[in-house]
Amino acid sequence: GRPLRPRRGAEDAPWPSDPPARPDPAFPASSPSFHGSTVPPRLLHSAAAPFTPAPLLNSPPDSPARGRPPLLRPAPGAAMRLLLLLLPLLVAAAGAARDSDDPFLSGAQANHSYNIDCGGAADFTSAFGRRWLADRFFSAGGNAGMVAEPHRFPQPQERTLRFFPPASAGKSSCYSLPLAPGRYYLRVFSVYDNYDSKLRSPSFDVSAAATLVLSFRSPWPETAARYGAYSDLIFPASSDAEAATDVCFYSLSTDAPVVASIEVAPVHPLAYDGATTGADVVLVNYGRLTCGNGLFGPGFTNDSDAFSRVWQAGTDFRNNDLTYDAITAGGRKIFGSNQPPNYFPTKMYRSAVTTGGDASKEIEYLMPVDTRMSYMVWLHFAEIDAGVRAPGQRVFDVMLAGRNVTRIDIFKQVGGFTAFKWTYIVENLTSSTMSVRLVPVVGRPILCGLENYAMVPLETRTVPHQAAAMKALKDSLKIPARMGWNGDPCAPRTWDAWEGVTCHPGNKGLVITQLDLASQGLKGFIADEISYLTDLVSLNLSSNSLTGSLPPGLGQPSLATLDLSSNQFTGSIPGTIGSSKLQTVLLNGNQLDGQVPERLYSVGVHGGVIDLSGNKGLCGVPTLPACALFWEKGGLNKTGKIALGASFGLLLLVILIVVYIVCIRRGPYDYDFEFPQDLTSISAISAKRNRYQRAKSVMLAEMDAHNTDGFYTNGNGNTR
After folding, report:
1. Residue 258 or 658, more confident
2. Which of 307, 319, 414, 543 could connect to 566 by a Cys-Cys bridge, CB 3.0–4.6 Å?
C-alpha cells in the first residue's frame, strides 16, 4: 500500500507522485522507483503513528430479513442449556475460523505460509500470534545486521535485517521458499535506518518468480529510509513441484541490498481473475485502500484477512480539494463478504466515504501509475445507508483515467448491506497519476475500498531441467558465493544471467548456450547433470583445479567448443565426445590416459583445433605414443578381452582334464605309488611292499595266459 507517514498535525504530507501543483519537498526527484519510473505505493511503518490493535465492531442481533419467517426462539432455560452444550463447539469453530481467515496462523508446513525474520537469530511468536522463523534455512548468504535505532520499531522482525555486499555475496542473493504450485501473497519489509553508518540508502532491485517486481533507488524518501517500507504483490509460484521459488535481491553498483522481513501466504487460485491472468501475471500493489477505516490487517492489527493482506487508510490518495464524509453500517451485518475466491474482509464494507457538502460533488482518488503498464482496478461498495431502500436512489458513474467506464446502482445489483465488487483493467495510460472518480447521477456516490494492481507480465524462465542441472553444477563445481549463482540462471532478462553463463530463448523457455568459468579457482568436479544442457555450444572450464573423470554427457551434439585445459582430470576420454559441430577441443594439461577416440581426433583432421598435450597416459593417435597391443582407453581393448577370456578357458580345460584323470577315471589295475604318510613307520613300508607284490603277481599271471602268438586264450584253449 501507499506509505503511511508520521502524523504532522491534523494532515498527512502529500504523496510525491501527486500532480505537480502540490509537490512534496521531503521526497527528492530521485526517489525509489518501480522499473525506473514512478514509485510503487509502499506502506511505511511510522513510530509516531504506532499500530495499535483495532477491535472489531460488535454487531447487534440481526433483524429478520425481508421475505423470511421469524426465527423460533426457545424458552430461556432451554436456551441456556443449549448454549452450555454448544459452547465447546462454538469455541473450537471460532478458533478454526480464525486460522482459516489468516493462513499464517495455520502453520508454515501445512499451507506453505512463511513469516521470515531476516537476520534474526531465533524463532519467536509475535504479539499478534504469528510465528516468525529465523532466516538461516532460507537465505543464501549475506550478513545479519540491526537497525541503528531499534527503539523506533515496536515489532522484533522490523529491527533485524540482512544485507548482501556484492563483493562477497555477488550481484544477486535469494531467499528460496519451498512453495507448492499455486498463487501467493508476498510482503517485503525493507529498512535502512543507517545500519551501516554510511548515511546512504542503497539502490537495488527485487524479483519474484524470476520477474523484476520492485526497484529501490538511492536516496530513499527520508521516511522510508528511517522507518522502513512495506511492499506487497501476488505472484504465481513455479509449476514444478520439486523446484523452490526464489525471492531475489540484485545489487546496483556496489550497493548492498537490504531486507528486514519476508512474508508469504497462499492465495486462492481463482482470486483476482486468476482463471485468465493468474498463471502469467504478477500483481504488484499500487494501492490497497480502505476508504472508511484506518489501517488494518494481519500483523498490524487483530483484524483478519484470508490472504493476509493489509488495508491502508485511503486519506493519502484523496483529492483534498474535495470534501468527504464518513458513514458506517451502524452495527448492521454485511452479507456477501469474506467469500471465495477473493475473501474480501467484512470490516472494509462496514464503513465508507461519501461526498460532503453539495450533493453534486464527486469522490476522487489519485493513484500513482507507470504508463508502460496496465492496471487491474477493484472497487468495493456496500449500501450501508438505511435510508436507501430501493433501486435508483443512489446512482453514480465510474470514471477511470478520464474515461466513463460504467454506471453503478448498488441496491439494484445486490440490495442493502451486501458487499458488491467491481473490477476493470485500465490500459494505455498517458499520465503518471490515474484518476478514479465517482460522479453522482442520483444521490451521493459511496466507496468502501479501492485496489490498484500493476499487471507485470511474468518473465520467461529457464527450462526447468536445465535450471536443475545448473544448480547441480553449482554444487559440484563449488562455485564461490562471490559469483552470485542464485535464483534462476537466466531470468529476469533485465539483469544478465549468472556470471559466466549465456542464455538464449528456446522452444519451452530460456536455455543455457555457453559456460565460461575459466580461471575461477574451482576445485570440484563436473556433475553428470551436465548432460541436460542439450543446447550447450561452448564450455570453458580451463585453468582451474577440477578433478575426477570426464562424464559422457559432455558429448552434446550442439557442442562446438570444449576447453578443459589446465585442470587435474583423470581417466579416459569418453567416446561420446566428438560431434559433427565440434571445432575446438583443448584437453591439454590434465592427467588423462588411454586411447584417444577416433571421432574426437577427427576434429583436427577435418580442420578443427585439438590439443591433447600434457596427458602422459594418452595414446593411439599421431603425435602420441602407440597404445599397448591389448590396452586402450585405460583398460583392455576388445582383442585383449578375447585373449584373456581364451586363456581362462584353456586353463579351466586343463584343470578339468587333470581332475578327471586323477580323481575320476581310476581303473582296476591302476597302481597307487603314493608315499606313505610316515616314512619312518616300518609297518607302513611293509604294507606298501605287500600291495606291490600282489599287483605284480596278478600281472604275471595275466601274461602267462597269452599264447606264444600274443593272443589271449580262455580256459577252453580257444583263441580270440
Report:
1. 258
2. 543
